[in-house]
Amino acid sequence: MIKTKLCELLGIKYPIIQAGMGPFGTNKLAIAVANTGALGLISSSALESSNVFNDDGYNQFKKTFEPGLEGESVEETLKNIFRHTLKQTKKSNGIFGLNTLVSAELMEGAGKMIKATIEVRARR
């Protein structure tokens, strides 16, 4: 097994980071990657861009995660996805991340996504 500073900093077993790969929901993949000891990332690009462009990306995104995770708002949907992912990654101690867009046009959405992530992680 390779042990690196990255592994130590992130608390992962292997120095591998899975790409977010949006606009599709990647929480199922992130769960699988995290549970093998690498860093799985949940893509949120469809969640963020739906506020700026249109709902089509968000509607496609919803088809890629488990039923029952949709919330009243984009932020609540992300919180539900994170709560579910935390439960499913107990094997890896809940170590996974969020891939978020931070362009000027999407900065407000990125802030909401990061805030939602921190709220869920803090309540762990």
Structure commentary:
With 124 residues, the protein is mainly α. The protein has one domain (17-122). The protein is built from 6 helices and 2 strands; from the N terminus they run H-H-E-H-H-H-E-H. The chain has helices at 5-10, 27-36, 45-52, 56-62, 74-88, 107-122; strands spanning 40-43, 96-99. Strands 1-2 form a two-stranded parallel ribbon. Helix 2 runs parallel beside helix 5, helix 3 (45-52) packs antiparallel against helix 4 and helix 5 (74-88) crosses helix 6. The longest helix has 16 residues, at 107-122. The protein is globular. It starts with a helix and ends with a helix.
Biggest sheet overview? 2 strands, parallel
Cα-atom Rg, whole angstroms? Answer: 14 Å
Poorly predicted runs of 5 or more residues: none
How would you classify the helix and strand content by structural class?
A: mainly alpha
Distance between the termini: 29 Å
Instruction: Give the count of helical stretches.
Output: 6
What's the overall average pLDDT, rounded?
81
For the largest sheet, list the strands in their spatial order: 1-2
